[in-house]
Amino acid sequence: MACFALAACGSGSDTTGAGSTDATAADTTEAGDSTEATNDGSAEEDTTEAGEDGSSAAPTVTGPSLKKAEYIKKGDEICGKVPQAFQPLFQKVNGELKEEEKQQKKKFSAAEKEEAVKLKAAVPPLGTALEEFGKLGSPAGDEEFAQEVVDALDAAKTGLEEDPSLPFTGKGSPFEEFVKLTKGYGFQSCPRL
Question: Closest Cα partner for 131 from 25, 59, 189, 23?
Answer without folding.
Answer: 59
